[in-house]
Records
---
Amino acid sequence: YPTWKRTLTRRAREAQMNRFCKAQTIQRRLEEIEVTFRELEQQGIKLEKLLRDEDGTPADQKTQWMNQLLYLVQKKNSLMSEESDLMIAVQELKLEEQQWQLDHKLRYYMNMEESLKTPEDRVAEQEILAQLVDVVNKRNVLIHIQEEKRLSEL
């Protein structure tokens, strides 16, 4: 087994493990965001009740509650933005994995001797190549979405 094949195999495993670790990290963060959303909702409900029920409350207290409510809304919006970014990252990881698998299949067909390829092999190779181009285009779209989002936030 040539050294370059072992190296490629090792790098592929490392890349796959990195994707797996990223996916786990993203999943944990999404769960944390969900818990934080629920907490913010509960705090918001309490503040809204206080604002509606307390007619004899001093104006300073109402202003403070309103500021707290606005802060909660702002925090929720930032979490929603982060959640959106994480969902895009999940899609990107899925596409990256899909691209790796297609690339692996394509290498199999490309490494075959041209004279040994059957017509079915050639068709399969072209289909895999088309799928690979489609995945790359989808990843490109995700990158453009992220860039547009980043620019709009600035």
---
Amino acid sequence: MKAILVVAFIVSCATITVNASMVGGFKDQDASAPEYHDHAWKAVKGINDQASNNGPYYFVPIKVRDLSLEKMCLKKKPVVKAQTQVVAGINTKLEVLVGESSCKKGEMQVHELTASNCQAKEGGNRAIYQVTIWEKPWENFEQFTVEKVRDVSADEQI
């Protein structure tokens, strides 16, 4: 009888551990949420400051085609993956698909780039960047960390 209770206890603890998310860890979020799209555009400065974008054109967040059976449509979703973590503030980790734009460096400042005035260039270079934003809104604090994940070919489906 004791052995059955011990086994039942171990199984229930294992089930709880597997199904529970790690306290303090990153949690997956809906990458299509508008706030993550806004964060992607805020991160443009950091992405363009990277040595890996040494070309003459700015990189901007670009749209991703969703070819799932349920939704055969073009989504306005430059964010491929979104996660958040509650710390002393909020850490938001995004994977952002960016592409070479038609906006030349030197002709406009990076803080002037918007979705309406700077479009992705057809056939331009593309890449995925990981952007981590640490925010403490009560202190008006925002810090971006940007790291290139990989280049993306023009014909690659994301």
---
Amino acid sequence: QVVFALNQTLLQQESLRAGSFQIPYTTEDLIKHYNCGDLSSIIFNHDTSQVPNFINATLPAHERITAQEIDSYFRQELIYKRNERMGRRVKDLLEEYPDKSFFFAFGAGHFMGNNTLIDVLRKEGYEVEHTPAGQAI
């Protein structure tokens, strides 16, 4: 699976360089949507937006199954479990020090797709509020 994932990633990078494949958004788009608090935008609304896309229709059936397994593994390990761990750490701090105030800052990856850090904390009963760029806290 590692060799397959590496080959697919390299093929995708070669397609990017050749101009036959384009990422649907730029780094500037990510920054703009993040700063505007537009976390429900199409850019942030994909489970696999942080993970290389291994699944494509041109793969033979047995390779497509491998691609789906890898995609599922990455989504679970790199997105869902990471946000669960981070949410648990935040919750533990808040419960351990209930009389203290906290400020948490996270990278954009914690807010992308489903099962975000915000989703995890809201499931735990916390009210989470976005503070737009430039707004005084």
